[in-house]
Amino acid sequence: MGSNHPDAQLYPHASGAALQMVKDHEAEQSLKLYSGWFCPFVQRVLIVLLEKNIPFKYIEVNPYHKPQSLLSLNPRGLVPTLQYANKPLYESTVICEFLEEAYPDSTPHLLPKDPYQRAYGRIWSDFVTSRIIPAFHRALQYQLHADGNSEAGFKEVKSELISKLREFTEAMDPEGPFFLGKEISMVDLIIAPWAVRLWVFDHFKGGLELGDEKWVERWGRWLKGIEKRESVVKSTSEREHYLPIYKRYADDVAQSELAKATRQGRGVP
Ligand SMILES: N[C@@H](CCC(=O)N[C@@H](CS)C(=O)NCC(=O)O)C(=O)O
Question: For residues 164 and 156, is the Cβ–Cβ distance under 8 A?
C-alpha cells in the first residue's frame, strides 16, 4: 500500500458545495472526521453530522495512500474514521449510530423512539449494506466483453440491482416522503450516498431503466426529498471530479478493497 496504489491519483479535495462545507469545518474540534471527499461511506457520516449540527473538524486523507495518522487510528486504513475524545472509531454505520447516542440533545433524532420502528429501520439499513451496495457494484463493474460475460449477464446484474431497490422501496411507509414516514431517519441517510450516485449507470452503463411499476413512483418521491436535503447537497462534490474515480469502477480496474471484494463475490469490506 502507499503512494503507488493504482487508485491513489485522485482529485485532492472536495469541490462545489462540499468545498464550502469543508471550509466551515477546518477549525480545531475534539471530534475529528478523517474523510475522503469522494467516499459514500464518509458521506453517510457527514450527513448525520450536518443534520444534527454537531461540531467536528474535517480532515482530508487519501485512503489509497494511507498516512500514518489514519493507520494509527484504524488498522484497516479505511475512511470514515472518527476520533472522539482522542479515541478512534470506524465503520460508517457504527459511527452514525454512535453520533446519535453520544449527542442525545442534537436534533433531529435519527433513530425512532419506538423500539419496533428502530429495529425495522435497522433491518433495512443492513439491507442497504449487505444487498444494495454489492448489487450496485456488481452492475457497475460488469464487463460486457470479458470472457464468459454476455448481454444477458449484464441484464441480469442490472435487474438484480433494480429488484433490490424495489424491495427496499416496497418496505417504505407508503405515504412518506421518507422511509419511515414524515420524518427523516437513519435508514434514509444510510442509503442516500448511493441513491445520489445512481447517475453513474446513466453515464457509464447505458442507464438502469427502472420501468414504470408502482414502486418507481414511490422511489422517485423518496429520492426527490433526499436529493434536495441540505445535508446531502452540502456533502456532495462536483460530478466532474467523481467521474475518473467511477470510470475505474466502470472499467473494473479499481483496486480499492470494495472493488476487489466485488470481483471476488464478497460483501462490503
Ligand atoms: N465498511 C466500511 C467501508 C469504508 C470504505 O470502504 N471506505 C473506502 C473509501 S470509499 C476506503 O477507505 N478505501 C480504502 C481502500 O480500499 O484501501 C465503512 O462502512 O466505513
Answer: no
Domain final residue pick, 63, 80, 102: 102
**Rounded CA gap, 167 and 103, in Å?**
32
pLDDT in tens, 196-225: 999 999 999 999 999 999 999 999 999 999
* Same domain assignment for residues 71 and 186: no
Element (H, E) at 87: strand 87-90
Ligand 1 within 6 A of CB of 140 = no
60 three-state secondary structure = strand
Question: Is the domain of 120 the same as that of 217?
Answer: yes
User: For the chain, which ranges sit under pLDDT 70?
Assistant: 1-3
Residues 5 and 254 sit within 8 Å (Cβ to Cβ): no
Ligand 1 centre distance from Cα of residue 92 (Å): 9
Residue 159, beta-bridge partner list: none
